[in-house]
Write a structure and sequence with these properties.
The chain is mostly helical and 504 residues long. It is built from 20 helices and two strands. The protein has two domains: 233 residues, Growth Hormone, Chain: A (Up-down Bundle); 218 residues, Growth Hormone, Chain: A. The longest helix is centred in the first third of the chain and has 40 residues. InterPro entries: MFS_trans_sf.
């Protein structure tokens, strides 16, 4: 198990024997597979190794929960905003697998994964701060501002903000691929499920941090008088999470720069072409290990539904309290009830907070089940199956959601399914690819994780386009609950993914 042997040496000083005692020698020959299989990382080391997931999650959660309102505050139209959010799944589908290949082939002195983590994280943190200060950066000093100069500066602000989002979603792919591969690299096979569980818990913590701040703002309006100060505060919190977690893992976790099996690096153009060429891509897809192949196939359908759930959940809660037709009628009559709008905004924020709390509670429950059941690893597909069924029923229950409280309950149960979706697919794949030479792609951790990310990203592109078409058609037909109908249609993909999970 050449690559895993080298990978595990990064935390060699923190490995412990099965009986819990420290190993007598600080350095071992980690090319010995039998020795590695008898070792395990301590809980504190798993906690440290997976902590960068906190920084990753706050980045995605900030974009999903506050990105659209912030861009709209810059007078960027909803149609352009929808196209901007397509950059995430597009880069995830094609850029992240390329970064995974490059990291597999890397021989950088810092290691195979750290250069991608550090460069990607630095770029993301810088661009988030720049995005939050877009108006301040693009508004240069003027002696006598005019309407033309104001509109020009505003146009500059919009272009600058869109460019920042594009750079963030691109750099996130290097950051994310490096973090995920580093975790697989440094964990013994028997602890891959535990590492995935800790990654999920850090993701939940990221959701809780930002959703709590957003809820407090909606409840107490701490930042609203200062315009976009709320987004600036959230960007600072996000940057702090990135700096602390990436700094910790970079300092304490070693990263090997050795290439598996002494293979020479392939030309960059050949690597990229193998990712973009349909024939080459199909070839590598068919070479995936059996469990990874099935999980990726399931994700192709599951993420058709997860895209609207993640991006439109807060809007669904808002529209349940303040339906589109009702809001438009009030606006046309000039009788817009500010208190009703504030009530709808409160449900928008509280729904995301309860979603995060439900995810957190489910993660704790899964942790207890894992320790209570000796054969928990064999139960993971079954838990994933029931979770997907639960998500599908929640999407259908939108037929009966008429109040903000009902919508919040439905969204909370969706949060429980999200906890499972963040853990079990990654645990199944990580456990398989950490074994010795699982396939013709043996040792290609970044490659396999990149293909898995592609399986999650491609359906998001399709789903985003379908959502835009459906919302436009429903708006033309004067049907107000467009988000609810998107959820109901998404249940078809959810139940089919559950059928595929059942075949696992």
């Amino acid at each position: 198990m050449d690559e895993l042997s080298v990978k595990a040496s990064s935390l060699g000083d923190n490995l412990s024997a099965p009986d819990g005692s420290d190993l007598p020698e600080p350095r071992r020959d980690f090319h010995d597979e039998q020795y590695l299989s008898q070792c395990s990382l301590k809980s504190r080391d798993l906690l440290l190794l997976t902590c960068p997931n906190l920084g990753l999650q706050v980045c995605w959660f900030l974009l999903m929960s506050s990105g659209t309102p912030y861009l709209e505050s810059l007078d960027i139209s909803k149609s352009i905003t929808s196209l901007v959010w397509l950059t995430g799944p597009i880069f995830g589908a094609f850029a992240q697998p390329i970064f995974g290949i490059l990291s597999d082939e890397s021989r950088h002195p810092w290691g195979k994964r750290k250069p991608f983590i550090l460069c990607g994280a630095s770029c993301v943190a810088t661009c988030f701060l720049a995005l939050a200060c877009a108006e301040d950066i693009t508004d240069g000093p003027t002696n006598a501002p005019t309407a033309d100069s104001d509109s020009t500066k505003h146009w500059y602000t919009q272009v600058f903000a869109i460019a920042c989002v594009g750079v963030i979603t691109f750099a996130m792919q290097a950051y994310q691929s490096g973090v995920r591969a580093l975790i697989v690299d440094n964990c013994p096979p028997q602890q891959q499920a535990a590492a995935s569980a800790w990654s999920m818990r850090w993701n939940v913590a990221g959701n809780l941090v930002l959703s709590t701040v957003g809820f407090l703002d909606a409840k107490r309006t701490f930042f609203r008088p200062e315009g976009n100060a709320k987004f600036k505060i959230l960007a600072v919190v996000t940057t702090a999470c990135i700096v602390v977690t990436v700094g910790l893992v970079s300092y304490y976790v070693a990263d090997s720069s050795q290439n598996p099996r002494g293979k020479s690096r392939q030309p960059l153009t050949k690597l990229c072409w193998s990712m973009l060429c349909p024939a080459e891509l199909s070839k590598h897809w068919n070479q995936l290990p059996p469990v990874s192949h099935r999980v990726c196939t399931i994700q192709l359908f599951a993420w058709v539904a997860w895209f609207p759930v993640l991006y439109y959940t807060s809007t669904f809660a808002y529209e349940t309290v303040l339906p589109y037709n009702f809001a438009r009628e009030l606006h046309e009559k000039g009788q817009l009830d500010i208190r009703l709008i504030e009530h709808a905004e409160l449900h928008r924020s509280s729904s995301m907070l309860y979603f995060a709390f439900a995810t957190f509670a489910t993660s704790l429950l899964l942790h207890m089940i894992e320790h209570a059941m000796p054969a928990f690893d064999h139960t993971q597909p079954r838990i994933w199956f029931f979770s997907q069924c639960s998500l599908g029923f929640c999407l259908l229950l939108t037929f009966f959601a008429r109040t903000g409280a009902t919508a919040t309950i439905i969204i909370s149960v969706m949060g429980a399914s999200w906890a499972v979706a963040m853990w079990i697919p990654f645990a199944l794949i990580s456990a398989e690819i950490s074994q010795p030479s699982p396939s013709k792609l043996g040792g290609k951790t970044g490659w396999i994780l990149g293909l898995h990310n592609m399986a999650m990203s491609l359906p998001q592109i399709v789903s985003a386009i379908l959502c835009a078409v459906i919302l436009g058609a429903l708006r033309w037909l004067n049907i107000g609950d467009g988000i609810a109908w998107i959820f109901r249609l998404a249940s078809i993909a959810v139940f089919y993914s559950a059928y595929l999970i059942n075949k696992l």
